[in-house]
Amino acid sequence: MARILAVDDDPLSRAILTDLLRGMGHTTVVVDNGLAALKELQRAPVDLVLSDIVMPGMDGFELAEKLGKLPSPPPVVLLSAGFMGDAEGVARARGLPVRGYLTKPVDARRLGAMIASCTAGPAPASAPAEWSGLAFLEAVNGPIERVSPIRVMFLAHCVDASGALVVTRPEGTARVVVRSSRVMHIEGVPALLRGIDPRLVDAQHLGKDLGAAVAAGHPVERVIEAVSIALGAWLVRVSAERGGTVRFDTTATAPAGTFPLPMPIPRVIANGVRLGRPAVELQRDWAPLGQHAPSVRIPDDAPESRWGLDATAMRVLRLAEGAVHVDHLLRRAAGDDVDRRLEVLRALDLLCMLGLVRIDGGAVAVEAPQTASERPPTSSGTEEDPRLVRLRTSLASMEGAHPVDILELGDRTKLTEDIVSQAYRDISRRFHPDSFFSAPPAIRALAEGCFQQLNTAFDALRVAGALSEANRFLADRVAGRGFVTERDHLTARVAFKRAEALFRVRDWAGADALYQEAARIDATTWPHAFYAIRAGALSRRIAPNVAMKQLDELQVPDMKKRADVLVAIGNIQKLEGRHAEAMKSYKKAAEADPENRDAQRELRLHSARAEKAAPPASGGVLSDFFRRTVEKKP
Predict the structure, then answer these.
(1) 3-119 has which CATH code?
(2) C-beta of residue 150 within 8 angstroms of C-beta of residue 354
């Protein structure tokens, strides 16, 4: 961690910087003017100076000039509410140790990226090229062969970035707007509704296509699922093709009135790999790579819990680190099981597309994206007003966010009315329309939008019962649990009850759709996922082997539920004609819960069938006499 000197004459800004820096683990020294900063540097060196630009006595540029005369000047990052490097500022900073600029209020992720770039030592010659992190994502701009659209989407998910993936190809430009690991809007992606109805007009616009499909009578849930699958398949296709460029636009926002697709980005990608890469094509591409060695590259900006990969992909990733070559990896992960081998191969294919695994010398390997030294220089045209960028980013982060996050209360453990009111007063000063009275119309409109979002969030937390629900939301977030509102919980329960009724009359497809809806709305209630998988297997939406694997990997609350899972696995095995395996599953269920009636019934039926099939035992001399008499009769 770094030792950082923060210089700002505003007490509130100093407090915010202190909280941010100490929360990142850095040693922080805070002063309120340039002279105090120089005295502090005489006492002890620092790794970085964060200085406000506009200060009485000595401004940030003057401080940087004095620091530049030191034998070993520390790097300087300048902070301002209305400056991001205009022509005059750049001229003043020429020859000074100024390494960059940040706007106020300071964004934690940008601050972290700036500190990392300013305090990192020289990279060793053998270090891999930079390929992850928000700073890289913002600078992505290159050919598809070098910067895979799938990897850009994955990195955006890992760092929780907001913006748009922009893919430009000869046939046109496509944009996929994301926020909080959800797809908010799609433009220019063809055939979004091909899986629903090929006769529908392909508008290549998410809102228009959804409206057309729903107007044609298709269920909303099915349309959204088809769109998510089509998007994933398109990402796979354009990532594999050559010709075109890709970049990530951090200023892009979704049109008003849009809502996120419920499927998170990792699932969109995984479904695209599964459906966009047929088994024949997959095996053909990997067949020549059996003796090539895999290497692993782990993102340095997000923990594993953020990746969103399934258990198979994570296991393959861990095994790849010690594998001699691809065939060795497949043997360790799948053994001789043909179905399992194909599943492992799909996971490996996905990991290569995400850039987590590279196959040395193989065609499937994806090259590292451009490093800072390889990126083309940016244009020297007129800079966009930094307030416009800041307000646009703030509005994008507020849209669809929880009121707790809009009012920046996520670091609290318990909320009260006074805490919420104070937060509202503090944050509303940044966006109050009076502060932008003389600004251009575009800036005023964005400020009014942010201010309206703040008012809506504040009003939402003042409704009766809202604070208790917000405190439950915070508690669930700290504990790592998913949060579901009471309204969503009730909606999911209604869907679950309707599904149960259809399941009893053997309407597998109808029950499957409703179970999926319940699981999507409320993933925290264990039976929703369990019954969705079970109905999916019966409706043939999920392949039997996949369904059994998903059931086996479910996190169960107790042994009784584990017994229910084992019975469901046994039922699928029995339907597939694998009776010996089914009996083993029923026995395990009975061991986990001796009172499980389904398991006990299946075991009794199996015993009864075994006894009936066995040859009759001898019944004594008299019984043998009558038997021989009967056999002698013609």
Answers:
(1) 3.40.50.2300
(2) yes
